[in-house]
Sequence to fold (68 residues):
Amino acid sequence: MELLNVGLLFKLAGIGILIMVFTQVLNQAEKKEQAQLLTLAGVVVVMIVIVKLIGDLFNSVRSIFNLY
Fold:
């Protein structure tokens, strides 16, 4: 496990940029409800990735300190 996974940071930043661009396009097209749903979906996707990373962190700590 790397100390800082740069590829993961770029993926999360890419998701954020794509969501921002699509949200602006939808807002310009007067589709504000779809823009809000898209933003919510982006937040959910990023949170799922972060929760998986936190789970990996806890598993690493558990294995380092031999906790069950």
User: Anything to note?
Assistant: The chain is about 80% helix and 0% strand. The CA atoms of residues 62 and 68 lie 7 Å apart. The mean pLDDT is 90. The two ends are 21 Å apart (CA to CA).
